[in-house]
Amino acid sequence: MKRFYKLVSFQSEPAGGFSIRLDGRPVKVPSGAVMLAPSEDMAGALVKEWAAQGEKIVPDMMPLTQILTTRIDRVSKERSAMTDALMKYLDTDLLCYRAAQPAELAKMQQESWDPFLAWFAEAFGVRPQTTTGLAALKQGAALHSAVHEHVNKMTDDVFTVLQLVSSLSGSLILGLAFCAGKITPEQVFDCAHVEERHKAAIYNEDFYGPDPAEAKKRSAMRADLEAAAVYLKLL
């Protein structure tokens, strides 16, 4: 879309929140609702995203805008269904499925993942089951109940970040740790790519370089994780 505005600003709204204004007119999300930032700091960051656009508006260059749009257009309307989908990650969580061999990969998984399983066990009072087999796990009812209760207490903004990080990493455990401030974006990325890091060492990726398509995907994931961290900080 071609840029159609010159001045970007924000305005405090009587009903709460801060609207983002393009030449004085409020930005609206696809559903038609006015985009309202939850804090003044967030509004300022959104203004910078919109002001930084060139001749064309590139949504991928406005990650905070995308996260907020998801919260307004999806989470606020579909949170119950999204929670049900998110809870399914507990039985398929990346951190719970381990390699028995090769030993180097198993060690990398243990070193990368076990600290966050330990945090999870302390936070929720239940340690998740893990397996090196092919059969799907079914985590216990107590674990599901504890996590479900915790997730339901989250604000829509934090829930939006949880959903984003969990889907990017394939791990609700990592998503919960991220929202609790127990893991950095780079640590999430590394945890989600243990097998890839193991293969990279075998094939000397540092020398030959990664596959261009894979490198692009990794870069996009890093950017999304960094944006999620900024979003939480600005709430």
Keywords, separated by commas or semicolons:
single chain; 235 residues; mainly alpha; ATP12-like; ATP12-like fold; 2 domains; four-stranded antiparallel sheet; 11 helices; globular
CATH superfamily of the largest domain, please? ATP12 ATPase
- What is the CATH C level class of the largest domain, in words? Mainly Alpha
Q: Give the N-to-C terminal Cα separation.
A: 29 Å
- Helical/strand content category: mainly alpha
* Order of helix and strand elements from N to C terminus: EEEEHHHHHHHHHHH
Portion of residues in beta strands equals 5-15%
Mean pLDDT: 95
Describe the fold and architecture:
The chain has 235 residues and is mainly alpha-helical. The chain folds into 2 domains: 8-61, ATP12-like (2-Layer Sandwich), CATH 3.30.2180; 72-234, Orthogonal Bundle (ATP12-like fold). Helix 4 (103-124) crosses helix 7 and helix 8 packs antiparallel against helix 11 (212-234). Strand 1 and strand 2 form a beta hairpin. Strands 1, 2, 3 and 4 form a 4-stranded antiparallel beta sheet that branches. The chain is built from 11 helices and 4 strands, in the order E-E-E-E-H-H-H-H-H-H-H-H-H-H-H. The longest helix is centred in the first third of the chain and has 25 residues, at 63-87.
